[in-house]
Write a structure and sequence with these properties.
The strands form two sheets. The protein has a six-stranded mixed sheet with strand order 2-1-3-10-4-11, sandwiched between helices. A five-stranded mixed sheet has the order 7-6-8-5-9, with helices on both faces. Helix 6 (about 155-165) links the parallel strand 6 and strand 7. The N and C termini lie far apart (about 65 Å). Helices cover about 45% and strands about 20% of the residues. It has two domains: about 1-120 and about 240-310, Bordetella uptake gene, domain 1 (D-Maltodextrin-Binding Protein, domain 2, 3-Layer(aba) Sandwich), CATH 3.40.190; about 120-230, Periplasmic binding protein-like II (D-Maltodextrin-Binding Protein, domain 2, 3-Layer(aba) Sandwich), CATH 3.40.190.10. The longest helix is centred in the last third of the chain and has 22 residues, at about 290-310. With about 325 residues, it is α/β, with parallel strands linked by helices. InterPro entries: BUG, Bug_dom1.
């Protein structure tokens, strides 16, 4: 009888702990600077997820080292559901083929869900003499290595490398900690062009500061109407990215299930779609069971793309 009472007490305690989650603020770590698209998506997720959980989700930016600083910090954090990562194709797929030394592995994380997809725009400042993709390629080929191109994320680095490969052109690559930093230097004339996430690209276009020459998704994007796909010039060009949420491996299954359900519910509906459009992304919900295998496929897909682009590991 005592054993039964003890078992029931343990079960009730476990249930009370599970129902109590969350009982303190959840930290959502962002691998890129404030103002980056990853940051904007994270703040939308934090707002909606916190409301759904009847708790608080706090965003913390930890930029640098291609996002690995943030990812490694979450991988090593306590697996209790209070340290989450706003992840992306860059962190969860590209970096494995881009970096020689990785401070984290795929097995260090548990998937919670995918929330959005997006692309990038190839941009020049508004008063640039470059008007089209063909114009850019002609100028680059006429002066090999003279034009400068910035990239502020692994995705932007790959987009640039694939463009150089497809166009058979040489430019000077300039790395940045984040896309907003690259945009600032482009507008200031320090670099000639850069790849910009849709959120920042839409803002810069509407503000009349920069001009989009082309977009990376193969079919173009309704978020950047009137801007041709780079595939119109280079038929095989196709690059799209995505965002999702991860937790440290070994996070209790009950906590993961709570987060999965809350994320799916909070990030759906027309209101969310409208807010996403304003920052340059589109809804692309995927639950935890779907997200894990999807990431595995993405790792292989980006590896092939990086090999084609001949980007050496750094």
């Amino acid at each position: 009888m005592y054993a039964i009472r003890l078992a029931l007490s343990s079960l009730l305690l476990a249930c009370s702990v599970a129902h109590a989650y969350p009982d303190k603020p959840i930290k959502l770590t962002v691998p890129f600077p404030a103002g980056s698209q990853t940051d904007l998506v994270a703040r939308l997720v934090a707002e909606r997820l916190g409301a759904e959980l009847k708790g608080t989700v706090v965003v913390e930016n930890k930029p640098g080292a291609s996002g690995t600083i943030a990812a490694a910090s979450v991988a090593k954090a306590a697996a209790d559901g209070y340290s989450l990562l706003m992840t992306s194709a860059a962190l969860q797929a590209m970096n494995y083929s881009l970096l020689k030394q990785m401070p984290y592995a795929a097995a260090d994380f548990a998937p919670i869900g995918k929330v959005a997809s997006t692309g990038m725009a190839l941009m020049v400042k508004a008063d640039s003499p470059v008007k089209t993709v063909d114009d850019l390629v002609r100028r680059a080929k006429a002066q090999p290595g003279k034009l400068s191109a910035g990239y502020g994320s692994p995705g932007a680095q790959i987009a640039l490398a694939v463009l150089k490969h497809d166009a058979k052109m040489e430019v000077l690559d300039v790395p940045y900690k984040g896309i907003p930093n690259a945009v600032t230097d482009m507008l200031g004339g320090q670099i000639d062009f850069t790849f910009v996430d849709f959120g920042n690209a839409i803002a810069q276009s509407k503000g009349g500061n920069a001009r989009a020459l082309g977009v990376t998704p193969h079919e173009g994007s309704r978020l950047m109407e009137g801007v041709p796909a780079l595939a119109a010039t280079f038929p095989n060009y196709s690059i799209a990215s995505w965002y999702g949420v991860m937790a440290p491996a070994d996070t209790p299954k009950s906590v993961l299930a709570t987060l999965d359900a809350a994320l799916q519910k909070s990030m759906s509906g027309p209101e969310v779609a409208a807010k996403m459009a304003s920052i340059g992304v589109e809804p692309a919900l995927m639950n935890a069971a779907e997200f894990g295998p999807y990431i595995d496929r993405e790792i292989q897909s980006w590896a092939k793309m990086i090999e084609i682009a001949q980007i050496p590991k750094q």
